[in-house]
Automatic annotation (TrEMBL):
CDD domains: CDH_like_cytochrome. Residues 27-204 form the Cellobiose dehydrogenase-like cytochrome domain. InterPro entries: Cellobiose_DH-like_cyt. Residues 1-20 form the signal peptide. Keywords: Signal. It comes from the Eukaryota. This is CBD9-like protein. It holds the Pfam family CDH-cyt.
Length: 220
């Protein structure tokens, strides 16, 4: 079970005061060859999204790039803690191979522990870690469309989406496992992310070439 209590609760309560003012911009990643809609917050963490054009299925590529001062960072696709997919990523501490990973979660109450969420499947495309920071790039099938007690949501063809983040400098208990427990966050924020910049006709090529190289998936 994940050791987290009011960590994401504050995201909703204090969303306006903690909202990020950064505007999204296009970012080309020279390692993966993928172009993202990218936002970098004042804490140095970047959240990047790539989408196909005129998608009929919930499909996206997400990249989280963090300075080494944070051990984990999470992205809430619905802009708050509960009833939306949470992409929680961290450095594994490995010096080669899988250097970062992502854990699929969803919380069903503000004081409930976020549970593994099987509605989103991740395919890792690239991971990195240096003394300066870590990053993960992964395809997510299920992050941009979900159903919960709040209703039915589909961001896939929206022009923008309200997203939220949370970060902590305390490492997960078992960094090599995406089912690891981890502690509450130390920072959080909310922002409106431009999704029009995320759409690209090369999306199918990106996921095909990357998936052929790795072939691994994380579910929950």
């Amino acid at each position: 079970m994940m050791r987290i209590s009011g960590a994401w609760v504050s995201v909703v309560t204090f969303a306006l005061s903690a909202s990020a003012q950064n505007g999204a911009s296009k970012y080309f990643d020279p390692i993966t060859g993928i172009t993202f809609s990218s936002v970098t917050h004042a804490n140095g963490v970047s959240y990047r999204v790539a989408l196909p054009i005129n998608a009929t299925m919930p499909d996206t590529i997400v990249q989280i790039a963090s300075p080494s001062s944070f051990a984990w960072c999470g992205l809430a696709w619905g802009g708050h803690m509960t009833n939306n997919p949470l992409s929680v990523a961290w450095s594994t501490g490995a010096t080669d191979g899988e250097r970062a990973l992502v854990s699929s979660r969803m919380a069903f109450g503000y004081y409930a522990i976020p549970q593994p969420y099987e509605g989103a499947t991740y395919t890792p495309l690239h991971t990195s870690a240096t003394a300066e920071g870590w990053s993960i790039t992964a395809r997510c099938q299920g992050c941009t469309q979900w159903s919960s007690s709040d209703g039915d949501f589909n961001l896939q063809n929206d022009e923008s989406a309200v997203l939220a983040y949370a970060c902590s400098s305390v490492a997960p208990d078992t960094p090599s496992s995406n089912s690891s427990t981890f502690n509450i966050h130390e920072q959080f924020g909310i922002w409106s992310h431009d999704l029009t910049l995320a759409r690209n006709a090369s999306y199918a090529k990106w996921v095909k070439s990357s998936a052929e190289q790795l072939g691994k998936r994380w579910v929950g």
